[in-house]
Amino acid sequence: MKGTVRFLGKVRFQARADSGHSLTIDGPAEVGGENQGFRPMELMLLGLAGCMAFDVLMILRKMRQEMISYQVNIEGERAEEAPRVYTTVRMEHVFQGSNLNPHSIQRAIELAESTYCSASAMFAKTAKIINQYRIQSDRSNR
Questions:
Q1: What does CATH list as the number for 40-141?
Q2: Of 77, 85, 53, residue with least CA distance to 67
Q3: What are the residue ranges spanned by the domains of the chain?
Q4: d(CA 111, CA 105)
Q5: What are phi and psi of 48, to 5 degrees?
């Protein structure tokens, strides 16, 4: 895996991954930015949510659990002193579908966090990761 981060001026950068995708990184006005892109630490947190979501989805598909929608809400707390690493991360996995098995969902989240999600393994070095889930009813059957 490779990528480049190119300086664009002030505190803005263009990041490009070897997959060809790109995004803008910028800071708030108080550090000279113009709020035109993601903050680096936001990307790390969103990367964790994306990694967990991807792995949970793959595991649930193997368990033949079909969902209509799935999202991960994530919130992180950081250390007060530099380096301001994440110390606590809370993820809420929200599923919608009919006949979803709570045991299967719990197991998929546990497997993703403990075995498959590389980002979770890295975050666990500095942060307490708290995963919760809820299943919303399938409103399309009403």
A1: 3.30.300.20
A2: 53
A3: 1-38, 40-141
A4: 10
A5: -60, -45
